Amino acid sequence: MTPRLDFIKASPEVMKAVLALDATSRQLSIPLALRELVKMRVSQINGCAYCLDMHAPEAREAGISQQKLDVLAAWRESPAFDARERAALGWAEALTRLEATGAPQRDYDALAAAFSPAEQVDLTLVINVINALNRFAVGFRSQHPARAEANAH
């Protein structure tokens, strides 16, 4: 895959605005580990290798186990996730796949049962920011660095 455009250099003010939203989301009520879990799942759905590569180490540093990361794509079938994580992941999937889901009531009900109104809004910001970043990275074909261990086989 060939990179299309360095969007940060092309319009630094846009990225400054998006990163300001990201910085705001980091100061709100959603704990770091849950934010990273949501970022990983949204990036999986959007096929953003750049963001997955960036957030996997951050997720592990935030205390998310490797097993949880390994089964994240199949979180609905895994006992590794608690009710709050399930509600957040369901809401993240519903909003990321909005054209297909329409943000169904069952996902909102699970969200509302596990999160306060302020937390619901805060989590929605986290989901929106990572979706925006995924769309920049995938759309302009950003490349993550290849590590030596990835090419060891």
From TrEMBL:
GO molecular function: peroxiredoxin activity
SUPFAM superfamilies: AhpD-like
Transmembrane segments: none
InterPro entries noted in UniProt: AhpD-like (IPR029032), AhpD_core (IPR004675), CMD-like (IPR003779)
Residue span(s) of domain Carboxymuconolactone decarboxylase-like: 12-94
Top-level taxonomic group: Bacteria
PANTHER family: 4-CARBOXYMUCONOLACTONE DECARBOXYLASE FAMILY PROTEIN (AFU_ORTHOLOGUE AFUA_6G11590), CYTOPLASMIC PROTEIN
Protein name: Carboxymuconolactone decarboxylase family protein
Organism lineage: Bacteria, Pseudomonadati, Pseudomonadota, Alphaproteobacteria, Rhodobacterales
